[in-house]
């Protein structure tokens, strides 16, 4: 009985982890407003296995917007690792890192 309950708990925990990876991405920590020159202290740390870099590029006009009060879109630049570990699906454009 104890083994069965432990197995169910472990299975449920794994289900929650996999669901979070699908919806939010596969990462453990986020650092915001880090200068690119200072990011080496995080990415080159011995405890860091993978690092995901992103940069907000700013707003651009978006003529296909359904919201006439906000006819713009905010653009981000992502590293190749970000495309593999975040729930991002590139529909058009290019992914050349």
TrEMBL record:
It comes from the Bacteria. This is Putative ABC transport system permease protein.
